[in-house]
Amino acid sequence: MPYVAEPWSYDDVLKLTKVSSAYWRATFNAPLLNLFTPRTYAALRTLVEILENDRAVKVIVFDSSVEDYFIAHWDLVPSEDKTDDEETTPIFDWANFVLRLARLPVVSIAEVRGRTRGHGSEFILACDMRFGSVEKAIFAQPEAAAGVHCGGGGIEWLPRLVNRSRALEILLGGEDFDATTAAQYGYINRAIKDAELSAFVDNFARRLAGFDRKPLLETKRAVNDRAGLPRLTDLLSSMQDFVRACTWPETVKRVKTLFEMGIQQDGPVERDMGRHLHEASIKMYGKTEEA
Question: Which domain of life is it from (predicted)?
């Protein structure tokens, strides 16, 4: 029996556009910050299920309708969105999801403008390719600097892409990386001038969509087998560490300080988070030796 997808109903957070039967686009669409919420995750899970079952689509491009934010980060405010199945929440299911995304019988590409930090960064790391705007893309894993453990795959993906030392620089420093540096490190594939980014990604996606599906998928499968994907047990362990870290008293204090400074508002903290994370330490503990 042919697969029949449920009607798409997530345009408020993720807008799906079928450029052709072989080439689709998914646009993160939750202004002002494109925070990652349970509804974002529900939309992505639904999309991945559709992609797993559609036999025509060959390439999916993820982009954003919010110029300054691709995905800002995980929403730190407890969500009112409820689910009847606890096992499909990001906390319990993210490890399975990112491996499903990496193994999709579809090529996934992230076209990044604006800030993508934390869980947003971990989402694009699970995509097959990442291209960023020289002028507008910013990448970061701020978890350690914000007082928590990186739990969504950054620890597992980054050493494979950028080497151990650079992964530690990204993960421990919590600083913002521009697209040019990110490309030099291997965090993303290429940094492209903003005026040329969309045309480049569109042309590349159309190129792939014009090839036969079987060699695309067999090549992706072989690369996954030889390069090695993160282990499910490691991804699960990192998420458990993240959940535990969220309960540490010093973490609760640090997050409270960040909210008082203006995190999750479209202002200085979100726009220049790398610098303000260090300022949070000074506010909490007074002038540090490093300051």
Answer: Eukaryota
